[in-house]
Design brief:
Elements: H1 12-18, H2 26-38, E1 41-45, H3 52-62, E2 66-71, H4 78-89, H5 101-112, E3 116-121, H6 131-140, E4 144-150, E5 159-163, H7 179-191, H8 202-211, H9 216-236, H10 241-244, H11 259-268, H12 272-281, H13 290-296, H14 302-311, E6 316-319, E7 322-324, H15 327-335, H16 337-340, H17 345-364, H18 372-390, H19 399-422, H20 425-437, H21 444-460, H22 464-480, H23 484-500, H24 504-518, H25 524-540, H26 544-561, H27 564-580, H28 584-601, H29 604-621, H30 624-638, H31 644-660, H32 664-681, H33 684-705, H34 710-728, H35 738-741, H36 743-757, H37 762-766, E8 772-774, E9 780-782, E10 789-790, H38 795-810, E11 816-817, H39 818-825, H40 833-852, E12 856-859, E13 862-865, E14 871-873
Parallel strand pairs: 1-4, 1-5, 2-3, 3-4, 8-14
Antiparallel strand pairs: 6-7, 8-9, 9-10, 11-13, 12-13
Helix pairs in contact: 4-5, 5-6, 7-9, 8-9, 12-14, 12-15, 17-18, 17-19, 18-19, 19-20, 19-21, 20-21, 21-22, 21-23, 22-23, 23-24, 23-25, 24-25, 25-26, 25-27, 26-27, 27-28, 27-29, 28-29, 29-30, 29-31, 30-31, 31-32, 31-33, 32-33, 33-34, 33-36, 34-36, 38-39, 38-40, 39-40
C-alpha cells in the first residue's frame, strides 16, 4: 500500500486510517479517477459513517502527485478555515490580514506548490463558505485538484459529485464477495483472531450486515461488540442500534466513536424546519413517495424541505420517485419526535392517508399484492388504528369508529395478499386476529372476505379444520346476502383446501359450484383460476392429457385478463406434469417461464416453490450441486413466510440432495426438523414424502457401509424398499396411496428408484424368467417369459396393475372387485356402474395383450392374478421397455 510522502504536512489522522486495511470500493476509486479526468473539484458526498474519509485517503495514497490532507471538523468560520489550511501548508498568514484577503493569499501559496491533490475532510459545517474558499483556490491555483469529503454538496459550478453509498450487501450466490461481509470479517478477526466464517454462522452474518445496511461505521462498531454479545444477540439488539453500536477505538475522533455521535453531528447542522421535517419523515417505516410526504409532512414547501435533507445526506433515493431514511437516522429522528411533534399529528396524518389509499387499492384490485413501500406503510397505519380502536370500549363506539373499523378491514384485506405471499406470516396472523376481534357484526361485503382471509391464513399454517370452518362461515354469509362473486371466490378457496387435503371429490364439487356462481359474472380472472385448479385436479387424477388441455385453456384466459401470478402458477404446474411424463427439457422450460412470471408478480412463497421444483428437476438430471443451490434458495425464502407444509417439503428435498452428496449429518438434521413439522401439522402426504426422504439418507449410509459390512448395507437397502412400499400402499380405508395422490411422493420415489438402480446390475441376473417383475409404482413391468413393457404413459393401466399386484401380495388368489378396480384406476372420479365396467374391460384387455393373458384372470365380480404367480420387485433401469403410447385412456 502506498504511503503518503513524508514531506507533506497535515497527514497525521490519515496515517491512522492507513494503518487499517481497505475493503472493496474499487468501483468508487475508479469513478473518482474518471471524475478528475474532466473536473478539478470532486466531492465525496454521503451520510455519517459511510466511509468518505477512508475512501479519500485511499485514493490519495494511490496517487502519483503530492497530496495534502486537511481536517476541517473544528472550523466554524472563514478565519478558522484559513488558519487550518495555512497550518497544513506550513504558511503563516500576516496578522491583521483582511478576511477576504486570506483565501487569496492561501490560493497563491497552493499555486506555489505546483501539482497537488488537496483533501478537505468534514466540510459540511462550513459548506456555506465554499465560494470564498474552494471556489477561490481553484481560481488562484490552476494546478491544484481538490477532493472534498462532506455530508452536504458544495453546489459550485464544475463540481464533480460522487454520492457514496453503503458497501455491497450479500447476495444468495456470492456471499463472500460482499464488501459488507468482508469488512465485518476483517474487523471481527481483529477483535477475536479465532473467529471464522462457517456454514452455520454465514446466514446470521448476512442478516446482521443487512440490518446494518452496509454502513461501514456501523459494521465496525458491531464487530467491536462481537466478543461480548455474539452474532445472534447483536441482531436481536439492533432495534436500539444507537445504544448498541458504541465503544469504538480510543484513537477515533469523538464524533466517530459511536454511531449516535456521528448522527448527532449531522442533526446539529439542521435548521429547525429541517429537524421537524426529518422527525416527521421518521413516521414512514420504509420507503415513501413525494405525494405521500406531501400528505404527511406539515411544511408549506415539502419539496424544498426534502431537497434540503437530501442535500445533507439524511434522505436517501431508493428508486425512481422513492425516498427513505437509513434505519440509524430514523431511530435518532424518532427519539426527537415527541419533542417536536407532541400531538403526534404526523402519525395521525400518516394513518389517515395510508388507510384511505389501501382501501382504494383494494376496491380497484382486490387480489393484487401491494408493493413493499405501500405494504409497510399500510401495516404501520393499521397497527396504529387498531391500537386506537382497541382502547375504545365496545359500548362507546361512535359511527366514526364504525367507519374506521371498516376502513381497517379494507386495509387488512389489501395487505393480506402481500403478507401471505412474501411474509411474515406471524404478522398477518396477528393483524387478522386483532381485526376480527374489533369487528363483530360486519356487513357481509366485508365480513365474508374477512372470514376467507382467516381461512387462508389457517390453511397456510397447516390448520385444515379451522380453515374449513372459516371458509364455510364466509360462504354462508356471502350466499345469504346474494354476493355470488364473493361466494364463488371463497368456494374456490375451499376447493383448493380440499384438493390439498386430497379430498378430490369434494374439491371437484367446490369447483363446479364456483363455476355455476360465476355464470354471467364476466370475471375472466376467476374463470382462469378455476380452469387452472381443474387442471391441477385432473393432473393429480393422472389424466395428464386432459389436465394439459385445462392448463392451456387457463393460460389463454389468464393472459387475456393480464393476471401474471396465476399464469406463473400454471406454468409451474405444466412443468411438474412434463417432468412426470419424462420430458425434462419441456419441464425446465415451463419452470423457468413460471419462475420469471412469479418474480414479476412478487409472490415470494410461490417463487420458492418454483425454485424447489427446479431443484427436483436438477436432482433427477443428476446435477446435484445445482439442485442443492435451488433447494437452499427455496428454503431460505420459505423460512420467512410461514408456509409450514412447503417449508417441510423443502427441507426434505434438500435433505435428499445432501444425502446424495454425502453430507449425511446435515441431511439428517433437516429431516428431523421436517418430520417434527409435518407430524404437528397432520399432513399425511407431506409426512409420506419426508418418510421417503429418510430413505435417501439410508442409501447414503449404506454406500458408506458397503465395504465394511455388506449385510448391514443390504439391510438398509431393504429398509428403503419398505419405505417405497409404504408410499405405494393404499390408505387404511382403501383409498388411493400417497404415490397416487402426490406428485411430491412420486418424485421422491423416482429419485430413490434411480439411486437403487445404480447399486447393482446383479439384480437383473437374479430375476426369475417365470416371475412377473414390477418396477416401482408399476411404471414398467416384465411379464413371465416376456419383454419389458413401459406403462409410464398409461396411468390407468399402471394403476390397475399395481392394485392387482398389491392385492396378490396380500391375499394370493383373492381378486379385486370391479368397484375396487374403478376406485384405483380413476380415483375421485364418479362413473356410472355400466360405464365403469366397460372401461375396466377395455383396460384389462390391453394388459392381457401386453403379456399378461395367462396370469390375469376373470373372477365373478372382478379380476385377480394367477394364485401361484411369483411377483418380484425391480429397482433398476428397464432394458428394452416397450414404450408404445398409441392407446388413449378414459
Amino acid at each position: 500500500m502506498r504511503q503518503p510522502r513524508a514531506a507533506v504536512r497535515g497527514f497525521d489522522m490519515p496515517l491512522l486510517e492507513l494503518l487499517t486495511s481497505f475493503v472493496g470500493r474499487d468501483g468508487d476509486l475508479e469513478r473518482i479517477r474518471l471524475l478528475f479526468n474532466s473536473k478539478r473539484l470532486v466531492t465525496l458526498w454521503g451520510p455519517a459513517g459511510i466511509g468518505k474519509t477512508r475512501l479519500a485517503v485511499e485514493y490519495a495514497s494511490r496517487g502519483a502527485s503530492e497530496c495534502l490532507f486537511v481536517d476541517l471538523s473544528s472550523a466554524r468560520s472563514l478565519g478558522t478555515v484559513c488558519e487550518t489550511v495555512a497550518s497544513a501548508l506550513d504558511v503563516v498568514l500576516p496578522g491583521g490580514l483582511e478576511s477576504e484577503q486570506a483565501p487569496i493569499r492561501l490560493g497563491r501559496a497552493l499555486a506555489a506548490r505546483g501539482p497537488l491533490l488537496l483533501v478537505l475532510d468534514n466540510f459540511e459545517r462550513i459548506a456555506h463558505l465554499a465560494v470564498e474558499t474552494v471556489g477561490r483556490w481553484l481560481i488562484e491555483a490552476p494546478d491544484v485538484r481538490i477532493l472534498v469529503c462532506s455530508r452536504e454538496r458544495l453546489r459550485l459550478r464544475g463540481e464533480g459529485i460522487l454520492e457514496l453509498g453503503p458497501l455491497s450487501l450479500p447476495a444468495d450466490a456470492e456471499f463472500a464477495a460482499s464488501e459488507a461481509v468482508q469488512l465485518f470479517l476483517l474487523k471481527a478477526r481483529a477483535e477475536d483472531d479465532t473467529f471464522e466464517l462457517t456454514d452455520d454462522n454465514a446466514p446470521r452474518i448476512a442478516a446482521l450486515v443487512q440490518k446494518l445496511e452496509g454502513i461501514p461505521l456501523a459494521i465496525e462498531l458491531a464487530a467491536v461488540r462481537l466478543p461480548l454479545l455474539g452474532v445472534d444477540e447483536l441482531i436481536s439488539r439492533l432495534g436500539k442500534r444507537l445504544d448498541v453500536l458504541v465503544g469504538g477505538f480510543r484513537d477515533s475522533e469523538p464524533r466517530q466513536a459511536t454511531l449516535r455521535a456521528a448522527l448527532e453531528w449531522s442533526w446539529d447542522l439542521l435548521t429547525e424546519e429541517d429537524q421537524r421535517a426529518l422527525v416527521e419523515c421518521s413516521v414512514f417505516p420504509g420507503a415513501f413517495s413525494l405525494s405521500s410526504a406531501e400528505a404527511v409532512l406539515s411544511a408549506k414547501d415539502v419539496l424544498r424541505r426534502l431537497d434540503s435533507l437530501r442535500d445533507k445526506s439524511l434522505l436517501r433515493v431508493l428508486g425512481t420517485g422513492k425516498l427513505g431514511l437509513f434505519e440509524c437516522v430514523r431511530e435518532l429522528a424518532s427519539e426527537r419526535y415527541a419533542e417536536l411533534d407532541p400531538e403526534r399529528s404526523a402519525e395521525a396524518r400518516h394513518t389517515t392517508h395510508f388507510l384511505a389509499l389501501s382501501s382504494a387499492r383494494h376496491e380497484q384490485s382486490p387480489d393484487d399484492p401491494l408493493d413493499p413501500e405501500l405494504r409497510d406503510n399500510v401495516v404501520a397505519a393499521l397497527k396504529r388504528e387498531l391500537d386506537r380502536l382497541e382502547r375504545v370500549p365496545s359500548g362507546e363506539r361512535t359511527s366514526s369508529d364504525t367507519l374506521a373499523t371498516e376502513r381497517a378491514i379494507r386495509a387488512l384485506l389489501a395487505i393480506e395478499p402481500a403478507l401471505a405471499r412474501r411474509g411474515p406470516a406471524d404478522l398477518l396472523l396477528e393483524l387478522l386476529e386483532r381485526t376480527m376481534h374489533i369487528a363483530p357484526g360486519l356487513p357481509p361485503r366485508l365480513g365474508a372476505p374477512l372470514f376467507a382471509a382467516g381461512g387462508r391464513v389457517a390453511q397456510a399454517r397447516g390448520r385444515a379444520d379451522e380453515a374449513r370452518a372459516r371458509f364455510d362461515q364466509g360462504i354462508q354469509l356471502a350466499e345469504a346476502s346474494g354476493l355470488f362473486a364473493i361466494q364463488a371466490a371463497i368456494v374456490t378457496d375451499l376447493g383448493v383446501l380440499e384438493h390439498e387435503q386430497r379430498e378430490l371429490s369434494r374439491a371437484r364439487e367446490c369447483y363446479d359450484l364456483a363455476m355455476s356462481r360465476l355464470a354471467g359474472q364476466r370475471d375472466r380472472r376467476a374463470e382462469g383460476r378455476l380452469l387452472a385448479n381443474l387442471g391441477a385436479l385432473l393432473h393429480d387424477l393422472r389424466r395428464y392429457d386432459v389436465a394439459r388441455e385445462r392448463y392451456q385453456d387457463a393460460l389463454r384466459v389468464l393472459n387475456d385478463a393480464g393476471v401474471v401470478r396465476l399464469q406463473g402458477i400454471v406454468q409451474v404446474n405444466l412443468g411438474v406434469l412434463e417432468q412426470e411424463q419424462g420430458d425434462l427439457d419441456a419441464a425446465l422450460a415451463h419452470y423457468e417461464i413460471g419462475l420469471r412470471l412469479l418474480e414479476r408478480a412478487g409472490d415470494r412463497r410461490l417463487e420458492a416453490i418454483a425454485l424447489g421444483n427446479l431443484g427436483t428437476l436438477q436432482h433427477e438430471r443428476g446435477q446435484l450441486e445445482s439442485a442443492r443451490s435451488y433447494h437452499e434458495r427455496a428454503l431460505l425464502a420459505l423460512r420467512t413466510i410461514g408456509d409450514v407444509r412447503s417449508e417441510s417439503l423443502a427441507r426434505g428435498r434438500l435433505a435428499m440432495v445432501l444425502a446424495a452428496l454425502g453430507h449425511n449429518a446435515a441431511s439428517r438434521g433437516l429431516l428431523a426438523e421436517a418430520e417434527l413439522a409435518v407430524g404437528s401439522g397432520g399432513d399425511a402426504l407431506a409426512a409420506a414424502f419426508v418418510d421417503l426422504a429418510w430413505g435417501a439418507a439410508e442409501l447414503s449410509d449404506a454406500e458408506a457401509l458397503e465395504a465394511q459390512d455388506a449385510q448391514g448395507a443390504k439391510a438398509l437397502h431393504q429398509r428403503v424398499r419398505q419405505r417405497m412400499e409404504r408410499a405405494h400402499r393404499a390408505s387404511s380405508t382403501g383409498g388411493p396411496s400417497p404415490a397416487e395422490l402426490s406428485d411430491d411422493v412420486r418424485i421422491g420415489l423416482r429419485i430413490l428408484s434411480a439411486a437403487l438402480g445404480r447399486l447393482s446390475a446383479e439384480a437383473a441376473v437374479e430375476l426369475s424368467a417365470d416371475a412377473l417383475v414390477i418396477a416401482p409404482n408399476a411404471g414398467c413391468y416384465r411379464p413371465p417369459r416376456g419383454d419389458w413393457e413401459d406403462l409410464r404413459q398409461h396411468p390407468v393401466l399402471r394403476r390397475i396393475l399395481f392394485a392387482l399386484v398389491e392385492q396378490h401380495r396380500a391375499q394370493p388368489g383373492v381378486g379385486l372387485s370391479l368397484d375396487a378396480i374403478q376406485r384405483a384406476a380413476w380415483p375421485g372420479e364418479r362413473i356410472r356402474v355400466d360405464a365403469a365396467a366397460n372401461r375396466i374391460y377395455v383396460a384389462v384387455s390391453k394388459l392381457r395383450r401386453r403379456g399378461l393373458r395367462d396370469v390375469l384372470l376373470r373372477q365373478d365380480d372382478g379380476y385377480a392374478l394367477e394364485p401361484s404367480l411369483e411377483v418380484q420387485r425391480f429397482d433398476g433401469a428397464m432394458p428394452g421397455a416397450n414404450t408404445s403410447s398409441t392407446e388413449t385412456e378414459g
